[in-house]
Amino acid sequence: MVTRKQMRSRIDEYENSLMRHRILSAVFFNIKNGEEGKGRTLLNIGGNRNSSWLFYSSQTPQDRTNSYFISVTDSIDVQMDSLQIKLVDLERKYSQVNSFKAAIDISGSVPKADHDGWGIYSYLPDNGIMKNQNYGTAGKEIVAIMEKVTENMEWSIFPYPYFREANPMIKFLMFNDNFFLSGKWKIEAILQRAVSLCSLFSADNTWDQVRLDMSSVLTTAIRSGVLASHGGFVTMPKSEKVFTRTFLSRYMDYEERLGKTTLFDFESLKVNYG
User: Fold this and answer.
1) Residue 4 is inside which H or E element, if any?
2) In a domain, 161, yes or no
3) Whether 261 and 135 share a structural domain
């Protein structure tokens, strides 16, 4: 039985994840959009419980390659050390150096510490993305991208991009396009559709890796009683508010008790329900 305190914690964590992902989606849209997007290569999209990020390279007119790290975090002051460590790891993995770097704080407050060399932004719902001018520069390219983020949040490709560490509820939004899809869907068809889109809007993930992860999400949603399934079909929910609370309660409990399912579980599920 989920206590009120546990439920409140899950809701808060999901809402923070949702806000980070909406901003990340707008950043992703701006990176890949237009003529400039053709010269950019997404190297990594990832996240953890408190932060999400994009790491990409861009070709300059002088045939130089620059790398860029844009992160969205619950608190820059608290998470800066972990973001810096992640950036170093990514630079090492993808053979990049001296990346331009920026962080967006969604806490609603202005970061207090001096984070030298970083472009620091705060997201305030009433004002959108605002740069704190007293901190470091993120480079002209990131500045140009950030100027468009707020206006493009409603035109982005949300709920994408996909990354494996995303909140499970965010991943479910990829199955029904943020509650755009409703009614009955064949299990295999809804999975194939989601995997194709997630593979398209991701970085450094194979199709098989995406399928394994997304089949786990769908299997867990069905077996935990979050999604109704009959005759090889699942019924997509209509009410976002009611479904979200049900998902955060039943899905999370099921996952905590039994751990994540596997592709074998999904194939078995198709036999049992098909």
Assistant:
1) helix 4-32
2) no
3) no
Picking from 186, 271, 252, the residue whose alpha carbon sits closest to that of residue 13 is 252
Its domain, for residue 33, covers 4-155
> How many independent structural domains does the chain possess?
2
Q: Do 111 and 175 reside in the same domain of the chain? A: no
Q: What is the pLDDT along the chain (274 residues), one digit of tens a residue?
A: 678 898 999 999 999 999 999 999 999 999 988 777 788 999 999 999 999 999 999 988 788 899 999 999 999 999 999 999 999 999 999 999 999 999 999 998 878 777 888 989 999 888 888 877 555 566 788 888 888 888 888 888 999 999 999 999 999 999 999 999 989 999 999 999 999 999 999 998 999 999 999 999 999 999 999 999 999 999 999 889 899 999 999 998 888 776 554 544 555 544 344 3
Based on the fold, state whether residues 145 and 30 are members of the same structural domain: yes
Cα Rg, the chain, nearest whole Å: 19
Of 125, 155, 185, at which residue does a domain stop?
155
Count of CB atoms situated within 10 Å of the CB of 86: 20
For residue 153, the 8-state DSSP code is: G
Reported as type and span, the H/E element at residue 6 is helix 4-32
